[in-house]
Specification:
Structural class: alpha/beta
Number of helices: 12
Largest sheet: 8 strands, parallel
CATH topology: TIM Barrel
Strand order of the largest sheet: 7-6-5-4-3-2-1-10
Helix content: 40-55%
Low-confidence stretches: 18-23
Pfam family, one: AP_endonuc_2
Organism: Brevifollis gellanilyticus
Protein name: Xylose isomerase-like TIM barrel domain-containing protein
Distance between the termini: 33 Å
Order of helices and strands: HEHEHEHEHHEHEHHEEEHEEHH
InterPro entries: IolE/XylAMocC-like (IPR050312), Xyl_isomerase-like_sf (IPR036237), Xyl_isomerase-like_TIM-brl (IPR013022)
Length: about 350
């Protein structure tokens, strides 16, 4: 496949999906995009809003502060006006806010200041939430385990409680990159205060934490105030299992069932697609050294359910740009296609 044919075919496929607009089968279900789905574009917030509008979506989730050009009132108001004109509801987030996590970066000041800035941006943009997260799976292997980091994250959240409550913004904590399992995030939310704190649910990250997505939803659904969703393919190998995230409808998750139950447990919350596809993650659970981050979990019913989930799939290839195609252009086209197919699947079959 040559460069021109690859890019032309991908663009036509995405356009055809957008033109075939079908209302979601679940009454009232809103469908949106997390900007990270098309991260290779390098776009700023205004371009992501424009793209969400071109896809006829209900929401656009700007999930990182770096996508904003500044935080001046006039600039943020301009973004809100743009979104309002297009009929797009904005959601806003930042990255990690746990000071003891390996993911913490002081780009916007202290963790407390970073979350405060996110709340400010959320208020100005009309977002009902300010999303953040703890860290990633590496934090589970540190001294004190994940609980130490949970406690530090709760401190940061509580430092912003009055600000969030005064602005009418809820703080949404994501289960991120295998950092927390559903029962741990639930406990964090309840300890911080579920009146102003909730979950940003991510079924793809749930699979990395060895939880079957529908079981994960049953725990966190009642706490969910925001979402970043994708599908997952999984298959067995000699060391355990391999996970590869996919476009919605192309993995093992029953998203028709997921969307219906999501709407029941978290009414009014949009399903926002965050496709991060094209690479595989080995889960070497048959090796003893794998279990340090998850003490005691191997003997649980939840783990057995996850293993059964991983046994249902088959190997799929990782993404690789075709020969003769600019790698950056190919990556952008691939990401746009993954997002377009996901939102279309949700419209047709959710």
């Amino acid at each position: 496949m040559n460069r021109r044919h690859f890019l032309h075919t991908t663009a036509l496929s995405a356009s055809a999906l957008v033109l075939n607009q079908i209302r979601a089968a679940v009454p009232g279900l809103k469908i949106g995009m997390d900007h990270f789905s098309v991260r290779a574009t390098g776009w700023k917030a205004a371009q992501h809003i424009e793209y969400a509008a071109s896809l006829k979506l209900d929401t656009c989730f700007i999930s990182e502060l770096a996508v904003f050009e500044n935080f001046e009132d006039a600039y943020l108001q301009g973004l809100k006006d743009q979104a309002d004109k297009a009929g797009i509801k904005l959601y806003v987030g930042t990255g990690g806010v746990c000071p003891t996590s390996n993911t913490w970066k002081p780009t916007y000041g202290t963790p407390e200041e970073t979350l405060a800035l996110t709340i400010k941006a959320a208020k100005k943009l009309g977002s009902p939430v300010a999303r953040c997260y703890l860290g990633n799976q590496k934090d589970r292997s540190t001294d004190g385990g994940i609980q130490k980091h949970i406690e530090e994250t709760i401190k940061v959240i509580k430092a912003n409680q009055s600000r969030a409550e005064n602005e009418g913004i809820k703080i949404a904590i994501e289960n991120h990159a295998g950092d927390m399992q559903s029962h741990e995030l639930k406990a964090l939310i309840e300890a911080a205060g579920k009146g102003y704190v909730g979950a940003n649910i991510d079924p793809g990250n749930a699979v990395w934490a060895m939880e079957e997505p529908l079981a994960h939803l049953e725990v966190l659904g009642p706490y969910t105030i925001c979402s970043s969703v994708r599908d997952s393919m999984a298959w067995e190998d000699e060391k355990g299992a391999v996970i590869q995230w996919t476009a919605v409808g192309e993995g093992l998750v029953d998203f028709s069932k997921y969307a219906k139950r999501f709407a029941e447990l978290a009414p009014g919350v949009p399903l926002q697609v965050e496709t991060i596809s094209g690479f595989a993650k080995p889960m070497t659970w048959k090796q003893d050294d794998f279990w340090k981050p998850f003490p005691g979990y191997r003997d649980t019913d939840a783990f057995k359910t996850w293993v059964e989930f991983t046994q249902k799939g088959k190997p799929i290839p990782s993404f690789k740009a075709p020969e003769g195609v600019d790698k950056k252009e190919a990556e952008i086209a691939y990401q746009k296609g993954e997002l377009a197919r996901s939102t279309q699947w949700l419209r047709e079959k959710a």
